[in-house]
Amino acid sequence: MASGVRTNTRRAAVGRRFHESSSISVHLRELVILGIPVFVAYSHLRITTMPAAMVNTSSSRPRKKLKRQAAAAAAGAILVPHPLGVKPAGNAYTASTNSKTKAGSFAKLPDELLMHFLECLKTQELRSLSQCCKFLCAFCYTDELWRALFMESRRKDFIWRGSWRSTFLCLESSQTSHISCDNVFSDVLHRPFFCAHTSLKPYVANIPRSNSIARLGNLTQEEYFSKWSNQPFILTSPVKEWPIYGKWSTESLLRDYGQIAFRAESVDWPLQTYVSYMNDQHDESPLYLFDCGFVEKMGLKVGRDVQGASYWPPDCFGEDLFNVLGPDRPDRRWLIMGPERSGSTFHKDPNATSAWNAVLTGSKYWLMFPSGSNIPPPPGVILSDDASEITSPLSIAEYLLNFHEVARATPGCKEGVCRAGEVLHVPSGWFHLVLNLEDSIALTQNFVPRQRLVHVLRFLRDCSDQVSGFKDDIVDPYGLFRERLREKHPGLLQEALEKLVQHRVRTRWEALTKANDESQESTGFTFGFGGGDDNEDVP
Ligand SMILES: O=C(O)CCC(=O)C(=O)O
Ligand SMILES: [Fe+2]
């Protein structure tokens, strides 16, 4: 899957959410009063938060509770109350008290702006402000603020205590105050909680047949090269042959590698710390373990013919042409571990490489789109003019809540669930979003199959500012790759360079003819899935 930059881009996109989501403007969509429960939606989310009256806060009437749960599940709503009792903004219209009136000048700020302001405060300032009134208390308790403070602190020695705030402030659960902020009404506070708790299962069910990612037992190299190198697919056999399949689990890794530090976004935590986080967190975008040094750290051997090997790349992908770079190649393989609801927001893998992603425990939902100059990015994804930056200003949950329906109906959309013992192929240049449906352990590897060599060469040549993962002392990755290919695979290089020239001529011609054809362009887009690579856009 990805390199240094892949990881950075991925995690940054998944990551810090307030900046990104706070631009959501909130309108009251529907408000029914006079005894009928209040019904409120965040307009951009197209979701209905449960009326306070329907949220299950008491366990005293189990029968009713069950009925409510069924109703709530049908509505795709959440069943747990906000830990502080905060409610969506619309509920303020029927409330008899509203703590915002006690917040003085802070009440004049829109909630989004207030949150931005709080992001600038230090620990003691947040703690002091939280004591002013329930409204400010609820804002200052926002765990994302404490996550940022924790990350900034670069703390090494700590015990995970169930929330970023408690961990950062070293609070025992007995020291955590449970303040009721039930007269606080804010979508900025409630929305992340909703996204962290609403069921995502409905989005991965009932995949339309035309969108389904092909599931195959295995492929030969010839089949892969001739038909599949630009298509996503799931193979159900190869991973089941790996010695580690069925042996690796969270418990076994904890037992054997608990003290070893693995990279999770911007931090290196001992595995045992990460697992205690994983087992007891409520983040909307959980911290994701994504480590490219796992083979060395865990002392693994890799390769089908290697004595004592733990795993090997599926045979059908053939030789990885980046191997010609030897130790100069960019990072290529990652151990991925994360809790249910963790995953990767939309991105493309680095340097136009392809990838495989093998699930060892758990399962992953994949949402994928091809890319190309005639193809718009997936719904809800914004590309910079030169396509170098991908912005998907949403957590995975927020994306699914907002865009899944339209994404599913968009031409080119592919979806599938990759289960334990299966491996998914990510063709170079394809956008993908991935959601862990359960706690999951996976391995992923990026590679350059011969069918996509021309795409990788062109990316290295024409998008040098986007090339990632090479060591700093390699100033000309394109030149180096060409040179090494010339030594080891002169025929393949020659063929790829000829295709590059043809592509350049074709692009120039298209640019010229397009200029005369603006009206047609504005009416939409077309693209084909003709199997062969010749018609494809080179990224
Ligand atoms: O497992 C995941 O979260 C997705 C990783 C990914 O993007 C990849 O393997 O290309
Ligand atoms: Fe990826």
Please give a structural write-up.
It is a single chain. With 539 residues, the chain is an alpha+beta fold. It has two domains: 192 residues, no CATH class; 201 residues, Jelly Rolls (Sandwich), CATH 2.60.120. Helices cover 33% and strands 14% of the residues. The chain is built from 19 helices and 17 strands. The strands form five sheets. Strands 3-4-15-10-17-8-7 form a seven-stranded mixed β-sheet, with no helix packed on it. A four-stranded antiparallel β-sheet has the order 9-16-11-14. A hairpin with a 6-residue loop joins strand 12 and strand 13. Helix 16 crosses helix 18 and helix 17 crosses helix 18. It is globular and about 75 Å long. It starts with a helix and ends in an 18-residue tail after the last helix. The N terminus and C terminus are likely disordered. Fe (ii) ion (FE2) binds next to strand 9. 2-oxoglutaric acid (AKG) binds next to strand 9, strand 10, strand 16 and strand 17.
